[in-house]
Amino acid sequence: MATKSGARQVKRALRNTDDILYILTGKRLRHVAGRVVNAFGAEKVTDFFAGPEEEELPPDSPYYILGIHPDAMDIVVKASFRALARKYHPDVNPGNESAEEKFKQINNAYSAILKERRAQAEAEKEG
């Protein structure tokens, strides 16, 4: 049996892997991860990925807009942004105002996440 901190690290790694797979293939890892999850004593796969300590993101959250978890690695954030930006870009959807609005939301969400993470990195350097 793994320690709780070890289980947390595996949960975070699986969450990031799940996000990457979803961006690349459109399929979630949850249905595949049952054996790993059972090794850490979770009742169901969904309990492992979204435990009781996690709360649901509000719809106006930048992470919700990009469809990623707040603990996602920078590469996952960037990949999600690029995939969504490509999908909703005004050149790909000419004349579609809802796609243009979604594109603006995606850009604003990505820039908000970048600002937040840069501020955290500076705070860690200083303190």
Number of domains: 2
Query: What would CATH call the class of the largest domain?
Result: Mainly Alpha
Share in β-strands = under 5%
Radius of gyration: 17 Å
Give the fraction of residues assigned to helices.
Answer: 55-70%
Q: Element order, helices and strands? A: HHHHHH
Total strands: the figure is: 0
Low-confidence stretches: 30-52
* SSE-based structural type: mainly alpha
Mean pLDDT: 75
By CATH, the architecture of the largest domain is named Orthogonal Bundle
The number of helices is 6
Walk me through this protein's architecture.
The chain has 127 residues and is mostly helical. It has two domains: 1-54; 57-127, DnaJ domain (Helix Hairpins). It has six helices and no strands.
Features:
127 residues, mainly alpha, 2 domains
Topology:
Blueprint: H1 4-25, H2 34-39, H3 45-49, H4 62-66, H5 74-88, H6 97-126
Helix pairs in contact: 1-5, 5-6
Short description:
By secondary structure, this protein is an all-alpha fold. 65% of the residues lie in helices and 0% in strands.
